[in-house]
Q: What sequence folds into this?
């Protein structure tokens, strides 16, 4: 009720209507109605696209000024391409770092522009970095399952990276849904008596879905059952549907702000790399999507040891006994920080929990060079996240530096930089960022 009341209140705000917004009236008068005509033109363009423009999309292009960290695609299958990045140091840590981004978005949130690229930062710290670039699914790929995302996606990426680097173990990182996939994959590997990871990093990830925040209003038994019927014969969940759902969680910021700016004032939105990425959504296989939402958001089965069987084995997150770095963002509306904190109670091993400032994306993309925000630390990990917060100390700056120091301790020996990308078994296919990331829903 609170969520829908807020939606109505936001929609009814006087600023959202031309007759009750003095700025709109003044601008229309000054331009002799030109601003309103331009607004209609902007509206027509957005209707053709099927979404609201939130940034100047002409200012960005993947491969031109986004996702430009040098590297190459060294493996691909129907699910993903694997990118290996060119080293930037003479020596590197022996163990490579494999990043698993969310499959509901493009990977380049971690490789935006050079000044805010997490990938470029990790490379500069002496890591051999690999990135999973998920494919934007087409209608004929709707039967791809959650198990395939684990076995042919995450686990395959880990195996290829280890094969290229000639190592037994690597460091793994998962972001958002990518972290959920990574957690399930690591549990599968443990059940198979395999231990390819020396450490794991979870960025704004839920493994326990007890509290999913406002998005829970969209997911109930009726919704999931209906979508299971919709996708019984295949098909994909279109990225535009996901985009609208997530935008509705922040309607003032991501909907009404641009209704006023674009349509009532007749202006173009400013260029903003984060919002360009946000609008570059991806399709998901229907079969994978309905399994995911039922067993996480609806029934929270992933957190219960042995309740799920994936890739032929029982999944038990407590079997993940690795050095673990868990990051949450204090104002995250997609992965509430207290839900992300529950990972500390589910997995084993030495765990460091860090609470960053800001939200789901801005809390993660916070390079040290900008010297912005802060993060909180508390070495104790009590069951109640409020107790953790009460004992946490605030530290200025970016969490990236803290993570870099932590990861260096799990990187292994120093070895000559791997300047030759791929190897004879996994030769270079094409230059980064590759083809898959450029496939749009538009």
A:
């Amino acid at each position: 009720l609170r969520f829908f009341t807020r939606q109505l209140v936001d929609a009814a705000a006087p600023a959202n209507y031309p007759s009750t917004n003095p700025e709109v009236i003044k601008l229309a008068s000054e331009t002799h109605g030109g601003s309103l005509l331009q607004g209609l033109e902007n509206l027509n363009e957005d209707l053709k696209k099927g979404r609201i423009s939130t940034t100047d999309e002409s200012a960005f292009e993947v491969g031109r000024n986004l996702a430009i960290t040098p590297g190459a695609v060294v493996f691909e299958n129907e699910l993903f391409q694997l990118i290996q990045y060119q080293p930037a140091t003479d020596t590197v840590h022996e163990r490579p770092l494999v990043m698993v981004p969310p499959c509901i978005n493009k990977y380049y949130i971690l490789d935006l522009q050079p000044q805010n690229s997490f990938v470029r930062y990790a490379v500069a710290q002496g890591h051999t970095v690999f990135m999973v670039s998920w494919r934007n699914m087409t209608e004929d790929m709707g039967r791809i399952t959650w198990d395939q995302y684990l076995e042919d996606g995450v686990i395959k990426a880990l195996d290829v990276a280890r094969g290229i680097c000639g190592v037994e173990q690597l460091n793994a990182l998962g972001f958002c849904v990518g972290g959920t996939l990574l957690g399930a994959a690591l549990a599968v590997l443990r059940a198979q008596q395999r231990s390819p990871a020396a450490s794991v990093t979870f960025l704004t990830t839920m493994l326990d879905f007890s509290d999913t925040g406002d998005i829970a209003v969209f997911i109930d038994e009726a919704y999931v059952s209906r979508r299971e019927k919709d996708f019984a014969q295949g098909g994909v969940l279109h990225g535009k549907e996901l985009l609208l759902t997530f935008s509705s969680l922040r309607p003032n910021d991501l909907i009404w702000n641009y209704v006023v700016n674009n349509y009532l004032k007749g202006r173009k939105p400013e260029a903003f790399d984060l919002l360009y990425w946000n609008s570059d959504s991806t399709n998901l296989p229907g079969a994978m999507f309905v399994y995911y939402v039922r067993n996480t958001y609806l029934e929270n089965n992933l957190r219960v040891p042995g309740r799920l069987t994936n890739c032929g084995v029982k999944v038990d997150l407590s079997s993940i006994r690795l050095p673990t770095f868990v990051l949450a963002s204090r104002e995250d509306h997609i992965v509430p920080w207290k839900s992300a904190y529950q990972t500390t109670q589910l997995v084993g091993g030495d765990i460091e929990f860090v609470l960053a400032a800001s939200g789901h994306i801005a809390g993660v993309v916070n390079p040290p060079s900008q010297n912005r925000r802060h993060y909180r630390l508390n070495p104790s990990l009590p069951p109640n996240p409020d107790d953790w917060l009460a004992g946490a100390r605030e530290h200025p700056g970016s969490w990236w530096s803290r993570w870099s120091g932590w990861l260096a301790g799990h990187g292994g020996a120093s070895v000559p930089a791997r300047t030759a990308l791929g190897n004879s078994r996994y030769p270079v296919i094409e230059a980064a960022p590759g083809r898959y990331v450029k496939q749009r829903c538009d």
